[in-house]
Amino acid sequence: MNKRIMLVEDDEKYALNLREALIEAGYEVTFMNTPIKAVAEFTKKNYDLVISDFCMEEMDGVKLLTILKEIKPQLRSIILTAFPEEEVELEAITISVDHYLSKDKSLTIMIKYIQQLLMKENTTNQMSFYGLTSTIERISVDTQSRIVEKENQIVPLTKKEYDLLVLFLTNKGMALSREEIAEKLWSNDIENIDLRVIDGHIKRLRSKLSLFSISSVRGYGYKWSE
User: Fold this and answer.
1) pLDDT tens-digit profile of 3-60?
2) Which value, to the nearest 10 degrees, does the dihedral of the CA atoms of residues 179, 180, 181, 186 take?
3) Interior CA angle at 24 toward 18 and 30, to 5°?
């Protein structure tokens, strides 16, 4: 899966040139021309990197990335500026922005910074950024931020639904008894759990993600068949 980048920039001519160069380098790029649109879009997909201009009308790039990092703390980020200032760079460092770059750098240099940053991401996480996947169901699970995507769209799950999904994806092809599921997900209160509650959670999980891979094992439990 190609790395997904969000580019937030109100200078559309500059943005389109950078976007074209990123696409040619093999990245999937979403361009937003305002920070407000960027925040709304960020909640819909799982982005590997956000590149933001510093000086924008609605809010500056530091404030935007502060908001986005509250949603996804490990987000990789770059701030671009036409007028580098030490004070702004210090603010960027404070919120753990990866690079603070001047726009007068060539596109070749910009792409090199981005490639190195995303390669560092791959090295840091020995698993892929998406910790768990299902090719058949077109599902990706980022186990660091607990974000679940179905066909590249984020699907909100309850804690128990998320835990069930992770349990099945880490035990593909294995039949799990209801007792085993209860022990793993309700370990502190297993004696008081009505095992039929598990059936309800699985029914809702199937519905939310339109799943076909979870099959019932009669008189026993469930299995993820893939």
Assistant:
1) 899 999 989 999 999 999 999 999 999 999 999 999 999 888 888 899 999 999 889 9
2) 80
3) 55
DSSP letter (8 states) at residue 63: H
Instruction: State the amino acid at position 190 in one-letter form.
Output: I
| DSSP single-letter state for residue 46 | -
3-state SS assignment for residue 75: coil
- Position 45 scores a pLDDT of 82
E-only strand ranges, the chain: 4-8, 28-32, 49-53, 76-81, 99-102, 132-134, 139-142, 147-150, 153-154, 175-177, 214-217, 221-224
pLDDT in tens, 76-112: 999 999 888 898 899 888 888 999 999 999 999 999 9
pLDDT-derived band at 128, boundaries 50, 70, 90? very low
Name the CA dihedral angle for 104, 50, 15, 43, rounded to a multiple of 10 degrees: -160
* Nearest 10 degrees: Cα torsion 82, 84, 90, 95: 20
Crossing angle of helices 196-209 and 178-185, in 10° steps, is 80
160 with 204: CB under 8 angstroms? Answer: no
> By C-alpha distance, which of 179, 152, 184, 151 is closest to 165?
184
Nearest by Cα to 51 from 23, 25, 26, 15: 15
